[in-house]
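hey can u check if this looks right to u? its 624 residues, i copy pasted from the old doc so theres a chance i mangled smth
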Amino acid sequence: MYPILKKIDTPSALRDLTQDELIRLAEEVREFTIDCVSRTGGHLGASLGVVELTIALHRVFNTPKDRLIWDVGHQSYPHKILTGRREQMSSLRQRGGLSGFTHRGESPYDPFGTGHSSTSISAALGFAIANRLSGGDRWAIAVIGDGAMSAGMAFEALNNAGQYKNELDLLVVLNDNEMSISRNVGALSAYLSRILSGPVYTRLKGGTGKVLGAISLPLLDAARRAEEHMKGMLIPGTLFEELGMKYFGPINGHDFRQLLPTLKNIRDLKGPLLLHVVTRKGKGFPPAEVNPCTYHGVSPFDRSKGVLPSNGVKPTYTQVFSETLIQLAKANPKICAITAAMPEGTGLSAFHEQFPHRFFDVGIAEQHAVTFAAGLACEGYVPVVAIYSSFMQRAFDQTAHDVVLQQLPVVFALDRAGIVGEDGPTHAGFYDLTFLRSLPNLVIMAPADENQLRHMLLTAVNLGKPVAIRYPRGAALNLDPPQEPEEIVIGSGRILCEGDQVSILAVGAVVFPSLQAAEKLRAEGIRVGVYDLRFVKPLDELLIRRAVASAPIVLTVEENTVCGGAGAAILEFLAADGALDRGLKIRNLGVPDRIIPHGPTTLLRNELKLDTDGIMGVVRNLLK
């Protein structure tokens, strides 16, 4: 099926192909990618959009000596296929298989691990400076999407790189497809669109380049000044060149006739350089071209039918959050919703439809999202910032300095907290309890089910101080009937059942499996009590005292790292309360202090003993 691709085991083989063979190879890589992802799931649309660009970069540059860094890494599947991992693609995102992102331990062609956006230019600059210091002759190439370019970190790196003028072998490839996960927003996206709609500028720049090489130096300077003047009239600003980057483009990222000669010419220059490449997300697979949001990240699917809408009965926690927030916003006109380029992923698309003037997509800019929310809160609004747990890490300083220190009523809705499965360590939501718990007077809640999420969201928007609610990825428990939101007492937990042998203090997604474990253990004659903390900060001290008074053995359970998590908070309280002096036996069960690899969620929970059977086994061992 893949006569040319099967001959490509390393990028060096690309350099022997004719241009016609390269075109056929691109078709084969695209088909192979679709076939693999339809079986394993993964990030499809972004990878399909960079097939020709990937081939061209590996053909022109001498990888892995030249360092090729893919921003985010979710568009790296063609790169993996062409760099010796073709036969392993069936293991993509599977336990023990290939990562869904670039990974330093996986291949010498992955010089930098990625998973979060907007890091590539900073890393590439580091590689380029290291090359300069060591007197080397290798290029550092960052491939960054236009959505990722909206983050402040990307511009910090551009600003830093621009000072080096002609001293670096650094190329930034701006992959412009008008999409991150959703369609791009903001002034930068509009700026790039204006460049694309300005053919006069493109012709002028190309023509000037031909003339400049044939005239004397004084005229050369005058021509350059004239060119800048004309660009200023034709386009509102020359942003990248003002930052010190030599700008080239835009060119068609699917046309080898433009890509190859442009990259070859650039290779003979000195950086920092920026090449603006225009691509189409989902290129070559019509369903993905028509609906790039749906095909950004997919579960395994039937190619002949495409990705079908979920017909599952159980609502997800994300859907419950979305529906509840809309319900509350109808009653409270001060409630606003903020996302950082994730309206679909965080469930806020429906809020946008209902309240377009109270919804804000700030682009891939979590730090800005939090401080922007703080400004809204200062004027009496109640901003709800919906961010994945792993992305919240990027806004810790803004949370501490701009929200918590000023005690502003910002609500953080932390989606995908805990185990996330195949997305792996870069997206793991294991750390939010630990880093947020260090902040004074921040209320931290974790619902055990969808009804608790409804109650917590109402409580949070009415509280008038900073609140974080963390909830897991995937289906809720589908409790019937769903409860109307009611305010709950801050710092109050729930007694689900009591026992005089073992007390389980659980929080969030592990409350239900803890309760199931207790029920099965009681059938064996082991008397286990289960207590739902609900609040990690402040703790329900009376509940904890009751739990430790009821049984001599205490087990804390959480989907967070045991370092500094809910169990650590309970230990701190018990130590201060003198309970540990009475011979109490306590064990903290959670995510151990190591990197957890990617794999199916059920498998990971089983290995970490955070499912029903695992919790039962831990309790039995504690009783020995």
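The first strand starts at residue 42 and ends at 43.
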